[in-house]
Amino acid sequence: MPVGKRALAELFGTFWLVFGGCGSAVLAAAFPQVGIGLLGVSLAFGLTVLTMAYSIGHISGCHLNPAVTIGLIVGRRFPAKEAAPYIAAQVLGAILGAGVLYVIASGKAGFQVSGFAANGFGEHSPGGYTLLACAVAEAVLTFAFLMIILGSTDPRAPAGFAPIAIGLGLTLIHLIGIPVTNLSVNPARSTGPALFASGGWALPQLWLFWLAPIVGAIAAGVVYPAMASEPETKSPKRA
Fold first, then answer.
1. Cα atoms in the 13 Å half-sphere on the side-chain side of 105
2. ∠ CA(221), CA(222), CA(228), 5° rounding?
3. Residues 37-57: what's their mean pLDDT?
4. CA distance 178 to 149
5. Which of these, 115, 238, 235, lies nearest to 183 by C-alpha position?
6. How many helical (H) and strand (E) elements, i.e. helices and strands, does the chain have?
């Protein structure tokens, strides 16, 4: 399939991830009496990936994340020459998702943009975690996420279940990471909301949410093939 069509699928999928995941945080997490809370937001992010994996996985592979694209390149699952259109589409989709969410959220009287589900460290960490703690969390959780992706999509894994494993994996790492950084593990997801967060505080911190996920993804791209490769069997010597 032409890379342009696959990039369009990535744009739509990343739009849905940001609109659905961040939208649940901005619109529904603290809704009086019936807010979905941290568990609900974590499930929302997982469900966006699960639904898109079944919807566009057969078109683009459903990366929705520059770190995933880079990790798959390192793991020799994706051609490096196609990284640029994929990553550009993911970032644009994330910005569009955050923009549409902003239009909806600002339609309420007394709306205050506040953090807008942006990722942050230090005083902008939900739990007040340090830069080092946030960097380690993002790198390790991205590493774990990529290991889940690489393992569940391995040809030797049970067929048809990868979207479930990946969606639940993303839910789990959000349950761990939201108190630390609001959880990124996805540079595109971080970029969209950062453009709309009040006061512009998120943009100077955005570098971490590109660097740490990419480091974690590269590590997984190296570790999984080394861990999962089967030893070559030597053919018997002829007499």
1. 27
2. 90
3. 96
4. 20
5. 115
6. 9, 0
Token readout for 80 is 């490096």
Neighbours of 35 (CB within 10 A): 14
Separation between Cα atoms, residue 238 and residue 139, nearest integer Å: 50
Which residue, chain included where needed, has tokens 């030597």? 234
Surface-to-core class of residue 109, CB atoms within 10 Å of its CB (0-12 exposed, 13-18 middle, 19+ buried): exposed
| Cα–Cα distance for residue pair 130/158, rounded to 1 Å | 40
Rounded to whole angstroms, the Cα distance separating 219 from 15 reads 27
pTM over 0.70: yes
- Tokens of residue 151, six digits: 């393992």
Which span out of 27-36, 100-109, 161-170 was modeled with the highest average pLDDT? 161-170
Is the pLDDT assigned to residue 108 strictly greater than 90? no
Q: Which residue has the tokens 């205050």?
A: 112
**CA 137 distance to own-chain centroid:** 14
The CA-to-CA distance between both ends of the chain, in Å, stands at: 49
CATH 1.10.10.60 fits 3-227, yes or no: no
* Domain residue ranges of the chain, discontinuous segments joined by +: 3-227
Give burial (CB, 10 Å; 0-12/13-18/19+) of 86: buried
CA 135 vs. chain centroid, Å, equals 15
- Cα dihedral 145, 150, 151, 152 sign: positive
